[in-house]
């Protein structure tokens, strides 16, 4: 399956909807990225860091108790929670930080929602000796306080964003404003598979290590591919990284968005399930918006999914019917969070808890013998306050 | 070229011959409230603005600094929509003979529908649009909708735009070429960017339309410094700041001071 009919576009989605000031910068980035991705030296450096620093390959754990509890034959968890810094975000952060060094940009900016991308970026910057500024909504700083402390320990400057809903969307706005201002010296290390070209492609390529490893590990363990692969979708970086290796396989692919208090309440963050096509943060994609084209405030218990847009490649995969996207509510995600803690001794982040929450539904669709792989994109230490507050 | 655009260009070109800079005044429609915009627009024109830009509020104005962000938020809270802004433009055009442009982000315009937008803008007497998140590469749909209605999308160029790109973007530009004076977002600055004259000279090599400079321009001395450099200046955030400081009176005196500095 060809996912890119033309450069920078995923069917009718993607593009570069940016101020003119940034157009030369994204052209330069696109060039530098292609050059790096074609360079053996870049890959050697990246692979060594992923192996010796990030701890790849991450394990594939069979979750037998979980499988019994949800009525599936076998469930496998791709353990991105065991990567250094506790989430998949480090895969792309390390890759992009190496790219920034190649581009001679010593100042790195990033946005963060849950704080996992901010921590991963601060980590990569500490390792490579780069200056790091992370924009974070004040609401997210409150609910993900441990990650704010981590970023500061790692030497990053965390800049609070007190605009709009004070979450991820507003942090992206502020990061783009910084980028427009300091474009000559600064590398914008975008965390998800969103934004203008080349970010959605670059982040997918850097995250596709998840799916490549998982596919190989599944074939080794089962001798066959699973019936389904599931991942949570906010901007969609862990999901596109997991799905990329399975797009040409006869495997059901399921993306799970944040249903918040329920799609019908309007208080959710499910752009693909409840949004319409629009332009946000440099790309044409599905956007949660009102009838006048204003971007709506979102709601999710999970800060990492609390975003009104989605990566443009997901928009295309939805339109083509290759991936089906559903939404699970806050309550369902919290139940799944507790289930995984008790059944497997794994405390997941609230983001992949949404993917776990989809398993009973997959069991009904695929039957009790079915084998399903889940991308467990991060660990839940950061969410303990949120979960305890709702106990 | 259409009548409306010809008027915009001719008025700016005539000023150049008269050795005066054109003054483009930006106001956020719906700020501080919907009724005020019409009054403030009149004041700006009567104080000496040659062209009016009406800002269309958006939830995520990523090319704008704090002043316009705040005004945009307030305008949205007042319920301002694209249709409302077009109605204000129409009313202003009936009262004052001044070219009007709308400046806003792509998503609300797409949502309105591009053919409907072009039709309604033309009917209201608006000359064109400035869309900061719709660069040349993404504007073919909008251009196709605007052209038959005789409207234009103003071409924005930045100090980071390289010469080969200027050579492609600038020659076909109509209305005026909008030079973003600095790398950054909108908002009043204490001083002009050091390299603005070099930048504008670089743009002028390719321009047939008049050349305007905006972003950061807030004081009469900035305007004076641009005489002989550009054909027009765009002032926005500073006008909003003036309205915040002292309402209509303060807006009027700043516009008059800026206008005085144009000649």
Give a quick set of tags describing it:
heterodimer, A: 391 residues, alpha/beta, 6-stranded mixed β-sheet, 4-stranded parallel β-sheet, 44% helix, B: alpha/beta, 9-stranded parallel β-sheet, globular
Q: Can you characterise this structure?
A:
The complex is a heterodimer of chains A (391) and B (263). Chain A is 44% helix and 18% strand. Chain A is an alpha/beta fold and 391 residues long. In chain A, strand 11 (276-280) and strand 12 (283-287) form a beta hairpin. In chain A, helix 3 (64-70) crosses helix 14 (330-344), helix 4 (89-102) packs parallel to helix 5 (116-128) and helix 4 (89-102) crosses helix 9. Chain A is globular, with a radius of gyration of 19 Å. Mean pLDDT of chain A is 96; it is low at 1-5. Chain B is α/β, with parallel strands linked by helices and 263 residues long. The relative contact order of chain B is 0.17.
Write a compact overview of the structure shown.
The complex is a heterodimer of chains A (391) and B (263). Chain A is of the alpha/beta class. Chain A is built from 17 helices and 14 strands.
Radius of gyration of chain A (CA) equals: 19 Å
Mean pLDDT of chain A, to the nearest integer, reads: 96
CATH superfamily of chain B: Aldolase class I
- Main sheet strand line-up of chain B: 5-4-3-2-1-9-8-7-6
What is the tally of beta strands of chain A?
14
Mean pLDDT across all amino acids of chain B: 95
* CA-based shape of chain A: globular
- Name the poorly predicted regions of chain A: 1-5
Beta strands of chain B, count: 9
- What's the tally of helices of chain B? 11
